Amino acid sequence: MSPIQDKTVGASLLAIGLFVFTYYSIWTLVIPFVDEGHAAHHLFPPQWYAIAIPVFLLVVGVTAVFGFLSFVMLKSGKKAAKKST
Amino acid sequence: MTRAQVASTTLAAAGAVWLLGLIGVLPLPETVRTQVWPTLPLLAVVSLGAYAFINIGYNLLAFRECPEAYHELMQEIQEAKDDLRAKNVDIA
Lengths: 85, 92
Hints:
The complex is a heterodimer of chains A (85) and B (92). Chain A is mainly α and 85 residues long. Chain A has helices at 3-30, 47-84.
């Protein structure tokens, strides 16, 4: 993996992290106190999504982690069974 | 007092405070109690993820290459793999 590739990956991770943090913080901490008519509301989806999107991503992530774990365990279990026959 | 004990105690204390705020025991303004407070655990998880991204991203950007260390490391990995395979450990 070339250093340039590493740096682009690093820069994009950094940018995504900063953006997600500031956007989500404003979404949850500032928007509830802004009046309904203010232009800022146009930049943010309804509050429901502020809960739905992270919860959905968490569920998908945890499922992926446990799924991978089970896959690896099943594969090594099969290998052990094969070896013992 | 291990690190895990400290971490779980802090987490439990924060969780207890959050639950108290949720059921209405703490003196919170109405908007905060109904709209901001319930999202705090999610905010914590999202911030943790964002912090991890920022950390990794920044270190990837700021890390200086050292080619000899790379080659030395690859060789050590190969030696370790051969050694373990000789001792009947299952290596890909």
